[in-house]
Specification:
The protein has 165 residues and is an alpha+beta fold. It is 24% helix and 24% strand. A six-stranded antiparallel sheet has the order 3-4-8-7-6-5. The chain has a three-stranded antiparallel sheet with strand order 2-1-9, with no helix packed on it. Strand 5 and strand 6 form a beta hairpin.
Protein backbone atom coordinates (compact mmCIF):
# COMPACT_ATOMS: atom_id res chain seq x y z
CA UNK A 1 0.00 0.00 0.00
CA UNK A 2 2.76 2.46 0.94
CA UNK A 3 4.67 1.91 -2.31
CA UNK A 4 1.42 2.43 -4.25
CA UNK A 5 0.87 5.79 -2.50
CA UNK A 6 4.50 6.81 -3.04
CA UNK A 7 4.31 5.89 -6.72
CA UNK A 8 1.09 7.86 -7.12
CA UNK A 9 2.61 10.88 -5.33
CA UNK A 10 5.70 10.63 -7.49
CA UNK A 11 3.64 10.50 -10.67
CA UNK A 12 1.51 13.47 -9.56
CA UNK A 13 4.61 15.44 -8.60
CA UNK A 14 6.33 14.72 -11.90
CA UNK A 15 3.16 15.61 -13.80
CA UNK A 16 2.84 18.92 -11.96
CA UNK A 17 6.50 19.72 -12.56
CA UNK A 18 6.07 18.91 -16.26
CA UNK A 19 3.07 21.23 -16.55
CA UNK A 20 4.98 23.99 -14.79
CA UNK A 21 7.89 23.45 -17.16
CA UNK A 22 5.61 23.71 -20.19
CA UNK A 23 4.06 26.88 -18.82
CA UNK A 24 7.49 28.42 -18.38
CA UNK A 25 8.63 27.39 -21.86
CA UNK A 26 5.47 28.52 -23.70
CA UNK A 27 4.06 31.52 -21.90
CA UNK A 28 2.25 34.46 -23.50
CA UNK A 29 4.68 37.06 -24.79
CA UNK A 30 5.58 39.90 -22.49
CA UNK A 31 5.49 42.02 -25.64
CA UNK A 32 1.68 41.71 -25.66
CA UNK A 33 0.24 44.99 -24.44
CA UNK A 34 3.40 47.00 -25.16
CA UNK A 35 3.26 49.62 -27.91
CA UNK A 36 5.06 48.66 -31.13
CA UNK A 37 4.87 50.13 -34.61
CA UNK A 38 3.26 46.88 -35.80
CA UNK A 39 0.66 45.54 -33.40
CA UNK A 40 -1.71 42.64 -33.98
CA UNK A 41 -3.93 40.45 -31.86
CA UNK A 42 -2.83 36.87 -31.25
CA UNK A 43 -5.56 35.72 -33.65
CA UNK A 44 -4.21 38.03 -36.39
CA UNK A 45 -0.64 36.76 -35.82
CA UNK A 46 -1.88 33.15 -36.05
CA UNK A 47 -3.37 33.87 -39.48
CA UNK A 48 -0.08 35.16 -40.93
CA UNK A 49 2.57 33.06 -39.15
CA UNK A 50 3.27 29.33 -39.39
CA UNK A 51 2.45 27.63 -36.04
CA UNK A 52 6.10 27.08 -35.05
CA UNK A 53 7.06 30.69 -35.81
CA UNK A 54 3.99 31.90 -33.89
CA UNK A 55 5.09 29.85 -30.87
CA UNK A 56 8.57 31.44 -30.93
CA UNK A 57 7.69 35.01 -31.91
CA UNK A 58 4.49 35.47 -29.92
CA UNK A 59 4.70 32.89 -27.10
CA UNK A 60 8.49 33.00 -26.56
CA UNK A 61 9.00 29.29 -27.21
CA UNK A 62 12.45 28.02 -28.18
CA UNK A 63 13.14 25.88 -31.22
CA UNK A 64 15.19 22.73 -30.78
CA UNK A 65 18.94 23.31 -31.27
CA UNK A 66 20.57 22.33 -34.58
CA UNK A 67 17.22 22.26 -36.43
CA UNK A 68 17.26 25.66 -38.17
CA UNK A 69 18.27 25.76 -41.86
CA UNK A 70 19.57 29.27 -41.13
CA UNK A 71 22.31 27.73 -38.99
CA UNK A 72 24.17 26.88 -42.21
CA UNK A 73 23.27 30.08 -44.09
CA UNK A 74 26.51 31.80 -45.11
CA UNK A 75 25.50 34.00 -48.04
CA UNK A 76 25.74 37.77 -47.89
CA UNK A 77 22.46 39.41 -46.86
CA UNK A 78 20.31 40.21 -43.86
CA UNK A 79 18.45 38.13 -41.32
CA UNK A 80 15.02 39.72 -40.97
CA UNK A 81 12.19 39.37 -38.45
CA UNK A 82 9.86 36.60 -39.63
CA UNK A 83 6.95 38.56 -38.19
CA UNK A 84 7.38 41.96 -39.85
CA UNK A 85 10.38 41.78 -42.23
CA UNK A 86 12.50 44.30 -40.29
CA UNK A 87 16.20 43.63 -41.02
CA UNK A 88 17.75 42.65 -37.66
CA UNK A 89 21.22 41.21 -38.32
CA UNK A 90 23.77 41.58 -41.13
CA UNK A 91 25.30 38.35 -42.40
CA UNK A 92 28.78 39.76 -41.67
CA UNK A 93 28.03 39.56 -37.91
CA UNK A 94 26.96 35.89 -37.96
CA UNK A 95 29.31 33.34 -36.41
CA UNK A 96 29.29 29.67 -35.41
CA UNK A 97 28.81 29.62 -31.65
CA UNK A 98 28.45 25.84 -31.48
CA UNK A 99 25.20 26.26 -29.52
CA UNK A 100 22.86 25.04 -32.27
CA UNK A 101 21.13 28.38 -32.91
CA UNK A 102 22.04 31.14 -35.37
CA UNK A 103 24.35 33.52 -33.50
CA UNK A 104 25.44 37.08 -34.18
CA UNK A 105 27.85 39.41 -32.40
CA UNK A 106 25.90 42.58 -33.26
CA UNK A 107 22.52 43.74 -34.55
CA UNK A 108 21.53 46.42 -37.02
CA UNK A 109 20.83 49.91 -35.60
CA UNK A 110 17.46 50.35 -33.85
CA UNK A 111 16.40 46.81 -34.76
CA UNK A 112 16.45 45.04 -31.39
CA UNK A 113 14.77 45.72 -28.07
CA UNK A 114 15.78 44.11 -24.78
CA UNK A 115 14.13 43.20 -21.53
CA UNK A 116 15.00 41.20 -18.45
CA UNK A 117 13.86 37.57 -18.55
CA UNK A 118 13.59 35.80 -15.19
CA UNK A 119 12.10 32.55 -16.50
CA UNK A 120 13.57 29.09 -16.01
CA UNK A 121 14.94 30.07 -12.60
CA UNK A 122 17.64 32.39 -13.99
CA UNK A 123 18.09 35.97 -15.18
CA UNK A 124 18.83 36.52 -18.86
CA UNK A 125 18.40 39.34 -21.35
CA UNK A 126 15.66 38.60 -23.86
CA UNK A 127 15.83 40.29 -27.26
CA UNK A 128 12.88 41.11 -29.48
CA UNK A 129 12.15 42.88 -32.76
CA UNK A 130 11.93 46.63 -32.15
CA UNK A 131 9.10 47.02 -34.69
CA UNK A 132 6.67 44.18 -33.82
CA UNK A 133 7.91 42.91 -30.43
CA UNK A 134 8.45 39.39 -31.77
CA UNK A 135 10.66 37.28 -29.49
CA UNK A 136 14.00 36.51 -31.15
CA UNK A 137 16.09 34.89 -28.42
CA UNK A 138 18.62 36.08 -25.83
CA UNK A 139 21.90 37.97 -25.71
CA UNK A 140 24.90 36.79 -23.69
CA UNK A 141 28.30 38.33 -22.97
CA UNK A 142 30.37 35.39 -24.20
CA UNK A 143 30.63 36.29 -27.89
CA UNK A 144 33.57 37.26 -30.09
CA UNK A 145 35.08 40.69 -30.56
CA UNK A 146 34.48 43.46 -31.42
CA UNK A 147 31.38 43.44 -29.14
CA UNK A 148 31.94 40.39 -26.94
CA UNK A 149 28.22 39.64 -27.31
CA UNK A 150 26.38 36.57 -28.58
CA UNK A 151 22.86 37.09 -29.83
CA UNK A 152 21.49 33.55 -29.68
CA UNK A 153 18.50 33.69 -32.02
CA UNK A 154 15.74 31.26 -32.94
CA UNK A 155 15.90 30.52 -36.66
CA UNK A 156 12.08 30.27 -36.69
CA UNK A 157 11.96 33.96 -35.72
CA UNK A 158 14.06 34.93 -38.77
CA UNK A 159 14.01 34.83 -42.52
CA UNK A 160 17.05 35.38 -44.69
CA UNK A 161 17.16 37.97 -47.48
CA UNK A 162 20.20 37.52 -49.73
CA UNK A 163 21.91 40.50 -51.33
CA UNK A 164 20.77 40.80 -54.93
CA UNK A 165 23.53 39.90 -57.40
Amino acid sequence: MTSHILNRRLILSLGSASLLGLALLRRPSRAEGEAFEISRTPEEWKKILPPQSFAVLREEATERPFTSPLLDEHRKGTFDCAGCDLPLFASETKFDSGTGWPSFYDHLPKAIGRREDNSLFMTRTEVHCARCGGHQGHVFDDGPQPTGLRYCINGLALKFTPVAA
